Amino acid sequence: MQANTTMPPAKKLLDQVREKIRYKHYSLSTEKTYISWIKHYIVFHGKHHPAGMGATEVERFLTYLANERHVSSSTQNQALSAILFLYRDVLALELSWLDGFERSKKPKRLPVVLTQSEVQALLNEAATAPEPVGLIIRLLYGTGMRLMEAVRLRVKDVELTRREIIVRDGKGGKDRVTMLPDRLAEDMHHQLVKRREWHELDLQLGKADVWLPDALAVKYPNAPREWGWQYVFAARKYSIDPRSQAERRHHIDEKQVQRYVKKSAQAAGIYKPTSPHTLRHSFATHILQAGYDICTVQKLLGHSDVSTTMIYTHVLNKSSKAVVSPWIICKQTGWLNAYSLFQTCRK
């Protein structure tokens, strides 16, 4: 009997990209972003296969993004990362031109920081937001967490007794510990009580499973249903996991928090561009103002390099506050005396 030598059909390119991304345990948001940019790159060049294109096509696409789409440098670098991932990790092409691309330089801009009175006004307006959105907004300022770190928070990582929150798998895959403010401990306790009621209902319905990272569900089969692994801020409705197709309760949609932060800032009369990340910047700046050292702030924020944290010292700008404006000197001494003083200083 002749053996069946029929080869399985070759996978489509974008399916290969998805497979490689999941093999490397990249997040779902990274998967969606990379797929979108790779598809855009291919369509831009008339749907030619990327293996038949090279440095010229990549440079032409990046130039189009900058000159015609007017994207920011960070967005352009994001597109380049997706294209390089395609060539290096999916197509496994070792081409000399891959190492020749320089990423566009990101402008060095100071972060937007709210004053303490502005933060208080924003939080007062956010008190009208439905829970747990309001609690998440308060946590962002009270702990310095990033938005996704807050919405992905698990029950086991909240230490009410020690007033601590353990941030797992933060930016760069790092864990860290931050504080849980006393003023938010009771709110967090109420949230956990309510969340436990939802979990008991989910167990009865057979929908208590939660997504676990790094194949932990395979190593610990019962873990997805355990209370400690549940999301603190879970969504009200069940949803279908786009990867496993399992129906379960995911964490709350981060877009809800983004909308209410913006809405609260507008209602508070804050004219600065305000997002959830603005509260993290404000947290860092205000604890520096309170006299805490830069290394403490670095640990709380989870920065690998203290130079990243140093940007908040520029926001404080204490040196410029010690300088007296020449306008004040002229007003106090008169223009003639001010000019004489200026000449003396030059000597």
Automatic annotation (TrEMBL):
> Keywords assigned by UniProt?
DNA integration, DNA recombination, DNA-binding
Which InterPro entries does this one have?
CB, DNA_brk_join_enz, Integrase-like_cat_sf, Integrase_catalytic, Integrase_integron-type, Integrase_recombinase_N, Integrase_SAM-like_N, Tyrosine_recombinase_XerCD
SUPFAM superfamilies the record matches: DNA breaking-rejoining enzymes
Q: Name one GO biological process term.
A: DNA recombination
Which family does the UniProt entry place this protein in?
A: Belongs to the 'phage' integrase family.
Question: Organism's domain of life?
Answer: Bacteria
Residue ranges occupied by any Tyr recombinase domain in the UniProt entry: 109-325
Q: Which Pfam families match?
A: Phage_int_SAM_4, Phage_integrase
Species, as recorded: Nitrosomonas aestuarii
Give this protein's Gene Ontology molecular function annotations.
DNA binding
- Tell me the ranges covered by the Core-binding (CB) domain, including all copies: 4-91
Please verify whether the record's keywords include DNA-binding: yes
**Name this protein carries in UniProt:** Integron integrase
